[in-house]
Structures are given as structure tokens and as C-alpha cells.
Design brief:
By secondary structure, this protein is α+β, with helices and mostly antiparallel strands. The protein has 35 helices and 17 strands.
Length: 794
């Protein structure tokens, strides 16, 4: 039994479901290739405490710690069992069922047969999916949007893909048997089983709140020296001479996405990726290292440690050298510096792979590979494209080409990258970069360290022409030539001219590097003084342009210099001749990164296009698309469709569905074409997809409420059809938490179940929402951005 006070289920696909499945699949693949292998996977510890049971009842225990992994294991086993039952493998399915459901003979009085029970808000969703009859129709579940149902669906898909499509083939049954072996006998847990009278809270605090958690490097160290001892190695000497990670450098914490990890743990993860060619979650570093040593590397631990030490020392040298501002850097060291400046560790496994002492890849070949992969990453960063899927490509590159002859490696890597054709991974071409960067508000859009690195690269490009040493990386200030406060000394007449000037302030052509002292001296000065100071005291080649500039510095000269800077960036990070970087596959489903400027650059929208708002109670108006992808409405400039829509509507809205073209298409339809999908009016129009609504309602937290309008904006529809749907939808959880805009229960509200007569106001009060004069506390209201965040986290 999972007690009421335990937190709800929070595990998700990227961080927990996928790594768990990868571990299970790895064990199954190993047992297929090595039938007598007895490898296991350790899942951690759980703490349970006995309940005082009446004689004759099934013994019961409360789960004190480990409820997330126990719940996930139950979902995985039930999902696998449902796939096997659908395939007619009842005996194998039955072996899993006895681990998730009690036998009927032991359950009386209509009680559930589930072995794991939830008593918190997850109970209904967990019971529903675990008791669903195979094949499970996840879309038809009342709680289809819950993390529990989504986890079950995920595991059904993974198991089905691994087993194959044809259940009649002998290999299918054999693989199914191996999978059941792994699930029933290949996964290990440490169970701390407390008696009813023992202090479970003290045990829980000891495990979770006291002491410092072990890092991946700590776990690997323990494993390494246990193996060395079993090999008869002098472990004291090995620790003193060969274990490289006992220093402040390696203990430093590095931010990686949502995690802070020690540099030693990060290196071990990246080193593993370089060896096995798989994307490895930071949380799976130790288990993957153990499996690699036990079943893949074919070396003694003493030999592995020698290799680890060599590459760790090299890694440390790169990092330390890259941090020295006046050093001339090798391509590898420069790549390390640039990764630090951009906050992305992505290419470290490739650097480690290219400098594997067992391969002896020539420096020239390694440098070509570094140049290609760095161009791929930085060009995507210039367009601010997502990086979530790039780790998979890095692992694919290593796995696919690790046995390639060194002389062929650069061409193979470039070819691999040029063939990427999905929006989440492609290598952008020159024209797309140029089109986007000409009007990009670079100063506002890029982190300072990344923008400085780009300007340093431009300066280095110019210096290379004259064989000058590279620019010192001393964190020089980024100066606006046309000042940010241009109204003081750089005035122009007329509203249109003022808007145009404001739009140019943060563009690349108006930005440069200067020394600290010069930055203070010229900050908001007029052009004549600023030009004189730059010509007299400046040390950067990129600023020689100003000496020969005309008597004015205006929008035309900024545009001209923007072209020069873009040229330097494209030459610093080139693509192979003829590469266009087109997206020809159906693009991924992530919608967050697409902007109007991408649609303009793709030729799907043209500057000057007029957009109309959807019908409503607001004043008639229109939005005009600018060359830089912004929208002009009533003399105001907006960066996003939703911002422009909010201005017109006076409240939050989904701008992609709010704005329409003259021909009736929504902006969302144009975006769909950009991704490779068909716009809605080109299809036989399907029923609205309410799955996002279901997910948001499932995640809507107790003690809060939202309005129909906010919820409609977050889902992408209008309030009235949404309200109509909720009243008839058995999958819409927490319907009582949706109120009118002023916090009242809607007059037309009714439960989807006609027999349900609960009072929504009393339910909300019991959940902690105060009411005054029949209206809910506005401080407890979640807006559309809050609602979007509830599902974005998963």
C-alpha cells in the first residue's frame, strides 16, 4: 500500500522510463547472445513496513520509500503481460500477472487484486490502467492523460517494438521468454522490511535526508576497486597512482540540463558514450559502466583503469588549457572553450572518441571531424533550434563510424550529418542562417557568453587572414555602436523611422567587442566621438570597419556590417559544398521552437502579409508580418503571435490559432506545413484532439483552479466547445477545478456521470481553495501559461 502522504507519481519518459527499459532490453539482448549469461540489474532499495493484519487476510505492507520504482515496475510488467496475452502467449503472460495481481482465491468482498495499491490521487488512474483488459486501448481510458497511463502506453510500445510484429515466428516466442526471464529473475532490489512497531520515519530520513548522496563517480570507484582486489591488484598503489579523480578539479559540480553533477561523474558518462555509442542518462552512468565492464569491453579492470586515467588526464588538460585566456588553442581545446561558452557539453564524447589511444586517429582527421560536428551544433544554436535530440546523433555517429578507417572518418561524418533531415537534428545551410541572422535581435536572443564567443570567432577569422594570433578570451564587453539609449544622441524623425531604429539596435551588425576602458568612455556617445575613440584606441580588427565608415552610423550601415559578420560566421563554421540543410522528413512534434521568422525564411509567409484575429468581442484590427518575423499591431511590435493576440484580446491566448490569413488558414496550419504535415483544411477534418486537455486536467494540482478561457487557450480551442466537452467526457479528471473567469461554478456545469451529485464548491474548499461570496480566491487561479507548464515538465 502506498500511503496517502507519499508524493504522487512523477517519473517520466526521458529521465526514468526510457533508461529503465534500456537496462531491461540490454539484459535481454545479452541473454539472447549469451544463453548462459546470468547478468542482473540492480534497481536500488525500497523500504516497506508491515501493517497489523487480521488473521486470514493477505499480509499487507506500507511503502515507506521506493514507491516510484515499484509503481513503474508494476506498469512495465503489466504492459509486457498485455502484449504477450494479445500474442496468445498466456503462460508467459501469467508469469508476469502473478507479480502484479493477487490470485482471485485470496481476494474476497470485491477487493482489488492489485498487489500495489495507491491511496493518494493516483489511485483511480493506476487501478484503471492496471485492470484494463488486453489489448489496452489507452485513448479510451478515463485517465488517459495521467503519467501512469502514459507510462503503461510507453512500455507497451517498447515491448512490442522489441518483440517484433509477427507473433507466429518462433523467434517471437523465444524473445518473449527471455524478456519474462529478465523481468522475473534479472532485476534486483534491496528490501528493508520493517515491523509494524518500528520507527519508519527515522529510516526514511536516514535514507533520504541525512548525509551526502553518492555520485556516479563514487559508485564507479567502489566497483572498480572491488574488481581490482579480485584480480589480485595492489589496490592501495592503484588508488594512489592510477585513480585520477581525487582532486578539486574533478569534484567541481557542472550544470548539465536540470542536473548538477560532479565533473568526474560527467566525464565517466561521456567516456562511456565514447566507448559504447549509446546516449546514456546521467542517472544510468553507474549501471551502464558496470554492464560495459562485465559484458562488453573484454578487458581486465586493471587495463580499463589505465585507459581511463590516460583519457581523464587528457580531458583535464583540455579543460584547464581552454580556460587560460591568452593561450593559443588547438581545435580540440577551442571546441572545449566554445562548449563552455555555449553551455553545451554535447561534443565531449566525440572528442574523447577521437583521442582514444587505442585508435591513434591522425590529428588532421580528428580536426576535420571536430570542425564538422562543431559547425552542425553552432549553426543550430544560431537559429536557436532545440538540442534535445542531438545527444542521440552524437551516439549514432560514434557507433556507426567507430570502426571506420581513420582516413575515411571526416568524409563519413560529414556525410552522416548532411543526411540528417528532421527538424530536430538537421544541419542548417547558409541561406537559412543568413536569412534568419540578418534581422535577429542577437543581443536579446543569445546568452552573453555565447554571443561573445561568436564575436570572438569573427575577430579570429579576420586575424587569421593576416596570420595574427587569436583574440584573448578575457570576457571583453559587448558594445552597441548605436547605443541602446539611442534617443539621447541618435534621434530620428517619424514613428516608422523610430521603430526601424529600435529594431536595429540589437542586431549583429551593431555589436562589437571593445576593451573595458573604452566601453566606459564611449557607451552612449554620439557617433562622431565614438568613431574617433574606436579609430584611435581600439585593438580589434573587426572595428577597423568603423574607421572607413561614412559620416553617419545608421540602419543601412548596420545591415551592411551584419552581412560581413554573417559571412565570417559561415566561413568559421562551413558546411560541405552544395549542402542546403533542408528538412524533408516529417518534423518532430515539439512546437515550442517554431517562430514566424522560420515560416518567413521557408517562404511560407511573406513580409507584409496581413493577419486577421478570429471573431470575438474585441475591436477590429490586423497584424502585419515584418521582415524579421515580428508582428506589428496598432503601432506596436510583438515577437510572438501569442503576444500580439494578447494585446488584441486583452487576455492570454494561443496566437497560432488566434490569427488567420485572408484565405481562412490559421497560423497553426502554416506551421504544420513547415513541419511536413498537412494543414487541417487539406484533410478530412477529424474530431478535435482532446488528449492535451486530458493531460492538463490530470495534472491540475489540488488547491488550485483555472478558468474555461485559460484552459481553452492552453489547449488551442474556444471556451464553449471545451466546456461542452468537459460535461460529457468521462476522461476529464478534476472537472470541478474549472470555473468561470470570476471564479464561480458555471451555470451549465454538470458531472459526466449523471449519478454524480458532488458539490464542486465544497470539494474545492476541502482542497484548500477559499471562497468569498461564492467566488474562488483569485490567488489560487492558474493561467494558461501555468497550465502549459504542467504538461511541459513531462
Amino acid at each position: 500500500m502506498i500511503p496517502l502522504f507519499q508524493r504522487p507519481y512523477v517519473w517520466d519518459e526521458s529521465e526514468q522510463w526510457l533508461p529503465l527499459w534500456q537496462d531491461v532490453r540490454r539484459l535481454a539482448d545479452l541473454r539472447i547472445s549469451e544463453p548462459f549469461a546470468s547478468a542482473t540489474h540492480f534497481l536500488g532499495a525500497v523500504v516497506v513496513q508491515a501493517q497489523d493484519n487480521q488473521t486470514g487476510n493477505l499480509p499487507a505492507r506500507n511503502v515507506i520509500d521506493g514507491q516510484q520504482r515499484l509503481t513503474t515496475l508494476q506498469l512495465l510488467m503489466d504492459a509486457a503481460g498485455s502484449v504477450l496475452e494479445e500474442a496468445g502467449l498466456d503462460a508467459l503472460s501469467g508469469q508476469l500477472e502473478v507479480l502484479t495481481h493477487n490470485l482471485g482465491m485470496y481476494v474476497t468482498g470485491g477487493a482489488t487484486r492489485l498487489k500495489v495499491r495507491h491511496s493518494n490521487r493516483d489511485r483511480a488512474a493506476f487501478d484503471e490502467v492496471m485492470n484494463a483488459e488486453p489489448p489496452v486501448d489507452h485513448d479510451a481510458l478515463k485517465h488517459s492523460g495521467s503519467l501512469l497511463a502514459r507510462a503503461h502506453r510507453f512500455f507497451v510500445r517498447m515491448v512490442g517494438d522489441w518483440l517484433g510484429e509477427d507473433a507466429s515466428q518462433p523467434t517471437y516466442a523465444y524473445r518473449a521468454e527471455i524478456l519474462v526471464q529478465v523481468l522475473t529473475r534479472g532485476l534486483q532490489l534491496v528490501v528493508i522490511d520493517l515491523q509494524a512497531q518500528e520507527n519508519s520515519q527515522e529510516i526514511f530520513e536516514t535514507l533520504n535526508a541525512r548525509g551526502t548522496p553518492l555520485t556516479a563517480a563514487d559508485l564507479v570507484k567502489n566497483f572498480v576497486f572491488q574488481r581490482l582486489e579480485s584480480e589480485g591488484v595492489d589496490t592501495r598503489r592503484a588508488y594512489a597512482e592510477d585513480w585520477p579523480f581525487e582532486s578539486k578539479f574533478w569534484e567541481t559540480e557542472i550544470s548539465v540540463g536540470r542536473y548538477n553533477v560532479s565533473r568526474s561523474s560527467l566525464f565517466l558518462n561521456q567516456w562511456l558514450v565514447s566507448r559504447v555509442g549509446e546516449e546514456i542518462s546521467p542517472k544510468s552512468t553507474f549501471s551502464r559502466f558496470k554492464h560495459f565492464v562485465d559484458h562488453e569491453c573484454g578487458q581486465k579492470m586493471s587495463e580499463v583503469l589505465v585507459l581511463l586515467k590516460q583519457q581523464a588526464n587528457l580531458y583535464q588538460r583540455w579543460t584547464v588549457t581552454a580556460s587560460e585566456p591568452d593561450r593559443s588553442l588547438t581545435p580540440t581545446e577551442m571546441a572545449v572553450y566554445r562548449m563552455g561558452a555555449t553551455g553545451l557539453e554535447l561534443l565531449k564524447p566525440i572528442l574523447i572518441w577521437l583521442h582514444d589511444p587505442e585508435r591513434s586517429i591522425p590529428t588532421a582527421a580528428a580536426n576535420e571531424v571536430i570542425a564538422a560536428t562543431e559547425s552542425w551544433v553552432i549553426r543550430r544554436q544560431l537559429l536557436r533550434l532545440p538540442s534535445a535530440d542531438l545527444g542521440r546523433i552524437v551516439a549514432d555517429l560514434i557507433r556507426t563510424h567507430r570502426s571506420a578507417p581513420a582516413a575515411e572518418l571526416p568524409l563519413r561524418v560529414r556525410t552522416h550529418l548532411t543526411r540528417l533531415a528532421s527538424a530536430s537534428t538537421y544541419w542548417p545551410g547558409d541561406e537559412e542562417i543568413r536569412s534568419a541572422m540578418l534581422t535577429e535581435n542577437a543581443y536579446r536572443r543569445f546568452p552573453r557568453s555565447r554571443l561573445r564567443m561568436l564575436l570572438e570567432a569573427v575577430e579570429d577569422r579576420l586575424r587569421d587572414v593576416y596570420k595574427y594570433p587569436p583574440v584573448p578570451r578575457r570576457g571583453y564587453p559587448i558594445e552597441h555602436v548605436l547605443p541602446q539609449k539611442w534617443e539621447t544622441n541618435w534621434q530620428v524623425e517619424g514613428l516608422e523611422a523610430q521603430i526601424n531604429r529600435g529594431a536595429h539596435v540589437h542586431r549583429l551588425g551593431n555589436l562589437t567587442l571593445v576593451t573595458d576602458g573604452l566601453n566606459v568612455a564611449i557607451s552612449n556617445s554620439a557617433w562622431t566621438l565614438k568613431r574617433e575613440k574606436l579609430a584611435t584606441y581600439d585593438v580589434f580588427l573587426m572595428n577597423r570597419h568603423f574607421r572607413n565608415a561614412t559620416e553617419v552610423w545608421d540602419e543601412d550601415t548596420i545591415d551592411a556590417r551584419t552581412h560581413i559578420i554573417i559571412d565570417a560566421l559561415l566561413k568559421t563554421w562551413p558546411v560541405p559544398e552544395g549542402h542546403l540543410g533542408q528538412v524533408v522528413h516529417a518534423a518532430d512534434t515539439d512546437q515550442g521552437w517554431v517562430e514566424i521568422k522560420h515560416l518567413v525564411a521557408a517562404g511560407l509567409l511573406t513580409p507584409g502579409t496581413r493577419l486577421l484575429p478570429r471573431p470575438g468581442s474585441w475591436a477590429p484590427t490586423e497584424a502585419v508580418i515584418s521582415e524579421d518575423g515580428t508582428l506589428k499591431v496598432d503601432g506596436n511590435v510583438f515577437q510572438t503571435p501569442s503576444g500580439a493576440g494578447r494585446h488584441v484580446k486583452g487576455a492570454v491566448t494561443n496566437g497560432w490559432t488566434f490569427w488567420r490569413l485572408d484565405d481562412g488558414r490559421k497560423l497553426a496550419d502554416v506551421r504544420a506545413v513547415y513541419r511536413g504535415a498537412k494543414p487541417e483544411q487539406d484533410k478530412a477534418r477529424p474530431a478535435f484532439d482532446w488528449s492535451r486537455l486530458h493531460a492538463i486536467l490530470e495534472a491540475l494540482p489540488e488547491g488550485n483552479w483555472t478558468a474555461y478561457g485559460d484552459l481553452a487557450d492552453a489547449v488551442g480551442t474556444a471556451p464553449q466547445p471545451l466546456g461542452n466537452h468537459i460535461t460529457t467526457c468521462p476522461q476529464c479528471a478534476n472537472a470541478h477545478r474549472v470555473l468561470t473567469h470570476d471564479g464561480q461554478v458555471a451555470e451549465a456545469f454538470r458531472w459526466a456521470d449523471p449519478g454524480d451529485h458532488r458539490d464542486p464548491v465544497e470539494m474545492l474548499r476541502a482542497e484548500g481553495v477559499p471562497f468569498t461570496a461564492g467566488k474562488a480566491d483569485p490567488g489560487k487561479r492558474l493561467n494558461s501559461d501555468d497550465l502549459t507548464g504542467l504538461v511541459a515538465e513531462h
